[in-house]
Give the backbone structure.
Amino acid sequence: MNIQNRVKKIDFHLLDLRYSHTRIRSDKVLAKIRNSIEAYGQLVPVVVTVEQDRFVLIDGYLRIAALKACGHDVVTAQIIPDKEPDALISLLANNRIQSLEIIEQAALIQELRHRFSYSFEQIGQRIGHDRSWVKRRLDLLESLPEEVRQGVMDGKLSAWSANRVLVPLARANMKDCLTLTKKLLVTPLSTRELLCLFDHYGKSTRKIRDRIVADPGLFIKTLQEKEQQQAARQIQDGPEGKWFKDIGIICHILDRLQKTSASMFFPTLDSQQRQRCRTWLCRAEKTIVELKHQAERES
């Protein structure tokens, strides 16, 4: 049977959406697909396998949701002869993997592991990856707290934020991860803001960390206000102000070096370290002399 004979119209009530939990429901992507369907109709068939008198939907969950939103009650589907686990393997292995988020890949791997008892080696061999790749995907999914996983699948949290921020945070402090997740579900942050927040969290004391996860939106707003104030001061002070600030920093550093020199210059210091000290001191002295001469010439 050729591929044209395997594409047909199927009523929605004949579809089995058993893998809907493995797909992220992005309102933004859904709106884009809906607009396309309203303008041009359904261009790409969904993919289904046959199970008795029903059709198991393998790929095309957002297309189904978009068709329903447009008032359709049938879908153009490609019926493939593969058995259900083979169809999931094909979805992971073929080019459509490029459109799957990491957490979606992990959810499909979890189905293959738990429902069909596939080993990591079997999955890896079939989709072109080694065992460790497959296991890392599954570990990512299973290390996510349920609140985080559901937030990602509902499209309220990005898969990027889950992978880069919430998973490491959950491993370090589950309580803070859950608190932050609840806040992000109500007041989302951009990926840039969330990465900035996580960076500050890692450098902060316990007291500051509590403030960060308690109100991440306020923390980011405060940081932005400080940056704006600093930028305004720089504009107001001009290059002269920055120059005086920088040379003040240099003087403070030199004072600190002088105070700690006793612990550096001692008789047992080896010759290599002594030469290294002389090199840096000569370089510093040369730079300061050149700077002084330049200032005198300009004056």
User: Anything to note?
Assistant: The CA atoms of residues 102 and 137 lie 7 Å apart. DSSP finds 13 helices and five strands in the chain. The beta strands are 7-11, 15-16, 46-51, 54-59, 74-79.
